[in-house]
Design a protein that fits this description.
single chain; alpha/beta; Rossmann fold; TIM Barrel; 3 domains; 6-stranded parallel sheet
Length: 445
Amino acid sequence: MTMKKVLFVNPSWDRYVSKRGKRYNRYWPPLDLLSCAGLLEKHGFQCTVYDQRLGGSCPIPADGHDFIFATSSSLDRWQCPNLDLELFVERIQPLFPDHTYVLGAHGTMDPSYVARLVRKGGIIREEPEVAVLKIVSGEDRQAIPGLTYLEGNKVVSNPSQDPPPLDDLAIPAYHLVDIRRYGYELLGRNFALLETTRGCPHSCTYCYLGMYPKYRLKSPQRVVQEVKMLLSTTPTQNVYFIDLEFAIHRRHCEAVLSALIESGLKFRWCCQTRADSIDLELLKKMRQAGCRLVHYGVETGSPRVLEMVNKRIHLEEIRRAVRLTHQAGLDSACFFMLGFPTESESEIRQTLNFAVDLNPTYASFHIATPYPETRMYQDFQRRRDGCFIEETYQQALPLPKLKALEREAYLRYYLRPQYLFSRFTRSPVESLQQLRLFWSFLSVA
């Protein structure tokens, strides 16, 4: 019997910074595709991963494969996917024979819309691994959970699946990509993504969690196993644990850190967590385990907006977290959003002032996006022009004004003489990389 050949495709989004919605299209490994490929290889299928992000507009080698799976949003974009879906469709248009399937956040948000765009094959909603295995194994598509497809002109959506324990998934097939081609300007080259958890137990109004049916934990032993495999088979030096909230489950987080420390594995890593999930003791243990950078979703400097978006945190807790992060010898990156529904210009300027006051190592500013299935979309989106839009109709400021404030935020934050001096005296090379990132963002109109 001939071994089935499967192609996984991570399409290019053209620009390093997307024009619509200004999403960074970083050269990061497509972790969801690697996880699917690892599972298929475990069951005897032959897999190839083609990352068009690295190859720009190079043709996708689709011929000779029994199945093709293309992601519209690799795992690092499950929570905040790109908005220019038409560009994705254009990229994978040549892959639309009957054996092409699309996975990712777009088809999960609006499976009927995306299924009609794709026409053939099908849409895999939510986490893809189990559905991908069932499709390649030849199971009846009517019995595959999480699959949406067309029967004639009728859209059929099978019930969603109950996601498996994370330890039951295969180790990501990192041997199928060249790790040397990936990097994160805030951490370094030879870069990989891993997980210790999936999902988030919180319910902020702007946060899209549709790709994560349930919050689950990976055992500390499994985390160490994946890191060992990664370091022993690839030249990986830097890892981003891409959990939505790395430290929110304190006992599990400490167990993972202890396991990493006891393993003696040497690598640099970063993570994202809530500001109210950490203290100095935990941060010091994170550094001992190899952490060098912590990301915080700050979102706003306005107490009213903070309460409105159901963040359930206080500004003083955020100040404390950033201060303790630096005290522990770690870098910080804070994410801010501008233009929440009903947010005034004065409240946005509160956010800019708060960012300068916090003075994290890195700061990122983006216009808030109303993703479907979020409370922000449901509460404030009164007209339906499609799911993938840049603004709601209850924003207090028009989009051009918000874009001007977004630009002002970057200029004000990064061109402070004190900030420039501290960055260049610490690391001229890192500072030049950061300047290139800064310019690539501002150069997109």
